[in-house]
Amino acid sequence: MALLDSYREKGFFGLRLFELFEDRIVVTRPYVLLRTTKVSVPLAQFEEGVEFQRFEEKTRNVGLIMFFLCACGALSWEKYPPIYTHPGFWSSCLFSFIGLLLVIRSFFQFEAAVFVTTRGSHRLIIASMGPDVLHFRDFTDRVLAQIKHCHEKDFETSSVGGQ
User: Is 137 a domain residue?
Assistant: First the structure.
């Protein structure tokens, strides 16, 4: 089967690649140390609809704790003047800055397409984040068209086999 379309999603916690084929969608997620996970999901198990929901990343609490603890760690070098000459001060400042970035990032929301199975459970969530954000709506429309095509093909084969 030939590849019909693809979409890359890049969030804070990693990258996912969605490859749309005629009867399935393959989700590829690379991990650290060259390990890659591929999951093939058949399109016939989805309902002919999609829910668009807004999400936010749940990094606010981690970022706040990291920011305050590392800021206190950086200020604790006040006893050893000049503080800017100690590597512990600079590493505390770096991690405090990373915590601040996590807090700021948690306020941004992103849109996600949720495809529901015929049993009613959420099976596939595609978020509009990363390098292909402008391609998000086109890709979800293409996936919906392929789901409809799979359902029509299943209906035709079941009606022909029943006669």
Answer: yes
Give a yes or no: residue 97 inside a domain: yes
* Domain tally, the chain: 2
Q: Number of C-alpha atoms within 13 angstroms, CB side, residue 72?
A: 5
Token duo for residue 82: 């000049």
**Does one domain contain both 11 and 35?**
yes
| Helix, strand or coil, per DSSP, at residue 4 | coil
Q: What string of DSSP letters covers 11-65?
A: ETTEEEEEEE-SSEEEEEEE-GGG-EEEEEEEGGGB-S--EEEEEE-S-HHHHHH
Q: At 111, is the secondary structure helix, strand, or coil?
A: strand
What does pLDDT average to over the chain?
A: 82
Can you give the residue range of the structural domain that contains 16? 5-45+128-162
Query: For residues 25 and 5, is the Cβ–Cβ distance under 8 A?
Result: no
Mark whether 72 and 96 lie in a shared domain.
yes
Nearest to 53 by CA among 1, 111, 134, 106: 111
* Tens-place pLDDT, residues 55-111: 777 788 889 999 999 999 888 888 888 888 888 889 999 999 999 988 888 887 778
Shared domain check, 9 and 40 = yes
